[in-house]
Specification:
There is one protein chain. The chain is an all-beta fold and 138 residues long. The chain has no helices and 12 strands. 0% of the residues lie in helices and 50% in strands. Strands 1, 3, 6, 8, 9 and 11 form a 6-stranded mixed sheet that branches. It has a 4-stranded antiparallel sheet with strand order 2-12-7-10, with no helix packed on it. Strands 4-5 form a two-stranded antiparallel sheet.
């Protein structure tokens, strides 16, 4: 499905509205998350239609056992990329919502993809949602 903005312009990318690709990535029922993210070719893609072009803050709701922390990720929207490393949240049952950076989006329908950046040690993360929130004044 195409992810449309809410009344404030936020795009809510969930495990349930993602396209799932790769060897091991699955939709887990217990927490409604994307899990078993253990293969280098695993990735999730969403089709989004922002209300306007501009900079969007990227907020992620995820869990990552501390011993799997440190894997790199890439969030790509068109030619824009946001990279980082996954921080631990203690265990796979403890979710955190954090701001991981900002990314520019065009006003056109586009694809947003989250994938590992390099080889995964353990698992990348368990992902509930990504929220793309318009940055005020941008």
């Amino acid at each position: 499905e195409v992810v449309l903005p809410d009344g404030k312009g936020t795009l809510r990318l969930t495990a349930g509205n993602a396209e799932i690709y790769g060897t091991t990535l699955v939709l887990e029922r217990q927490y409604g998350n994307l899990g078993m993210w253990t293969s280098d070719n695993d990735h999730a893609t969403w089709t989004v239609q922002p209300a306007r072009a501009g900079k969007y803050g990227v907020w992620i709701d995820y869990a990552c056992e501390d011993k799997s922390a440190g894997n790199g990720y890439v969030l790509q929207a068109g030619t824009s990329r946001l990279t980082g490393r996954v921080a631990g949240t203690k265990n796979w049952d403890t979710y955190q919502r954090i701001h991981i950076g900002d990314i520019p989006l065009t006003a056109a329908r586009q694809r947003v993809t989250l994938r590992p950046d390099g080889k995964i040690t353990g698992a990348l993360l368990d992902l509930k949602t990504l929220e793309l929130i318009p940055v005020a004044g941008e």
